[in-house]
Amino acid sequence: MNNAWKEQIKQARGGDGAAARRIAERYETGEGVRRNVRKAIRYYAMAIKAGDGEAALGVGKLYHKLWKNGGAYCGAAKYMLGEAAEKGYAEAQYLLARYYTLDCEEKAALLERAAAQGLEDAAYEYARLALRKGGGSLGAVIPLIARHAQLGKGRFAFLMGYCAEFGYGVEASDEEAVYWYRRSAESGDKSALFALGRMYREGRGVRRDLSRARDYISRSAYLGHAEAQYAYALQLKKQEHYKEARAYFLLAYGQGVHCAALELGLLAERGLPKKKSAKEAIFYYAKVKEELPEAAYRYARLTGDEASMCFAVENNYPEALLEAGLRERDERKLSLALDKGLLSARLPLALLCYEKKDYDRARKLLVEDESGEAFCCLGRMYLRGEGVLQSYRKAALAFAESAEQMDANGLCEYGKLLESGFGVRRDGGAALSAYEESARRGNAEAIFRTGVFYAEGVVEKNEALAAKRFALAADLGHGEAAYRYAGCLSKGYGCKKNVRAALKYLHLAAERGVAEAQCDLAAKVAKGKRFSLAADLYERALGNGCERAALPLAECYRYGRGRGADPDKAIALYERAAKLAGAELWLRMASWTETGAVGLCKDEKRAERYCHTAAQLGNPVAQYRVAQAFFEEGCEG
């Protein structure tokens, strides 16, 4: 140690506060000695005890630094800075203000006192605090901001521009805002650069210039402005510079911009600029799913988390509302999604209204949508007269518009009108072309209709092609096509005969509700003595409109095959079958009821009525029997 240092220590120990403070400062900074925070604090304490006012500020600043670096010195820093602030030290007042919350009056008072002493940092923080609070405090702070701005202080010029842009304490003026932002930007203020970029991008106060806007925002982003980094990253993403965009999104996210985490998740989910990574996307979405409904929705889609989906729906995120509305068949949610600007919700909403028979609203939405599927649904409304006057011509026009947009269902429906000649001129060739176009788009009904055309030779007969089309439509789930293909296989029509495969397709057709197939399958099952299953199939076939199932089902009830014997039900079914079968069955029923044949009750009146019905239908035997009955009655009379 040199003599001067020794003398200084001697003076400090002798009660010289200034000497003790100078030693503490050297130990704090490591100037000429090894840095030692403990010794610095000890000598600051000696200086304070000796009455040195600046020592309280020095030790307060030291404790403040230690606290900011993760030390447990908050209380000590606040106490010592408070001591220095009471003695009027502006820097102490400024630092002490940082320990109070924004809404604390003490914070504003400390900053105001420090600013009055000319401390620029305090004046800036005081001005920002006043702008946040607004109200009456603005009148006093605007002159302070203007004074520093006129002196060329960049950050104050930015605040002046901010006041001018939003009308805080001064008259709102975009031109004035641009003037101050430009002055602040000249000094390199990152907030001003970003604000000036916004003004150029939006064309406020200046002529719109996207190139200059991009330049200002990129400079602000480079200087570390969080919002500018996010905005610049969005620009880079739009230009497909995904690698650079991701880098700036990461920077913005590091500074607390939640939307940047969402964008990082979207990039990861879409594999930009590297491989797709659901794991990485989930990581970023999870970070902000409680703040951003879109992040919650995307997190829910990737993880199946119901709570996140509920959060997105509760916060009216349009895509979440659409998904929930489709899943729950909820008209309100679909309407809300449409109101939020999600146009893809319009068609599902229209179709739901159509299903619920709210035809007026459905028609309005369909007309607004103008998609191929919308025109197809509109065509069906005109075809069936649902909510509108029935009109084949208007139906044809709607289906034609749908077909023009190459909607598969619209093409098929238009083909049906061309085939039948309703609303348009009948044209088999044009109908086949429409069916073929629809079939190429995977429409099972259209594939089936082309098969019918080739099977029946409407345009040209081609049995092999017809069988292929029936098979293809059947594999796509078309029941009637499965029934027709079963017939092809059983007879070798257009394909190799295959009884086993025919039975398989017959089963498929029956399962898909084709009444004729159910009836035919029941007959095959009945041959195998599986009467209960046969009776079930006949019941289903009859329920689906196959009247020829009534006769075999009547015999099931008559003879107790697969059903309990029930003469009354058997007679009712025989009557239903006779309406299709004609006079011969009526005559046989007359004979059965007259004699009380097996499984039926004897009923002469009913027998007479049946015989009369057969006679009216032209059966000569019945007519002879009716005539003979009249003759006998006449002789007796």
Give an overview of the whole structure.
By secondary structure, the chain is mainly α. Helix content is 75%, strand content 0%. The longest helix is centred in the last third of the chain and has 17 residues, at 620-636.
Q: Summarize this, please?
A:
The protein has helices at residues 3-13, 17-29, 37-49, 53-68, 74-86, 90-97, 105-116, 120-133, 137-150, 154-166, 174-186, 190-202, 210-222, 226-238, 242-254, 258-270, 278-288, 293-303, 306-314, 318-328, 331-339, 346-355, 359-369, 372-384, 392-404, 408-420, 428-440, 444-456, 463-475, 479-491, 499-511, 515-527, 531-543, 550-559, 567-581, 583-595, 604-616, 620-636. The protein has 637 residues and is mainly alpha-helical.
Number of helices: 38
| Total beta-strand segments | 0
Shape: elongated
- Mean pLDDT over all positions: 90
Sheet-strand content, in percent, reads under 5%
Q: Nearest-angstrom radius of gyration?
A: 45 Å
Oligomer state equals single chain
- Characterize the main sheet: none
Termini Cα gap: 161 Å
Index terms:
637 residues, mainly alpha, 38 helices
Please write out the topology.
Layout: H1 3-13, H2 17-29, H3 37-49, H4 53-68, H5 74-86, H6 90-97, H7 105-116, H8 120-133, H9 137-150, H10 154-166, H11 174-186, H12 190-202, H13 210-222, H14 226-238, H15 242-254, H16 258-270, H17 278-288, H18 293-303, H19 306-314, H20 318-328, H21 331-339, H22 346-355, H23 359-369, H24 372-384, H25 392-404, H26 408-420, H27 428-440, H28 444-456, H29 463-475, H30 479-491, H31 499-511, H32 515-527, H33 531-543, H34 550-559, H35 567-581, H36 583-595, H37 604-616, H38 620-636
Helix pairs in contact: 1-2, 2-3, 2-4, 3-4, 4-5, 5-6, 6-7, 7-8, 8-9, 8-10, 9-10, 10-11, 11-12, 12-13, 13-14, 14-15, 15-16, 16-17, 17-18, 18-19, 19-20, 20-21, 21-22, 22-23, 23-24, 24-25, 25-26, 26-27, 27-28, 28-29, 29-30, 30-31, 31-32, 32-33, 33-34, 34-35, 35-36, 36-37, 37-38
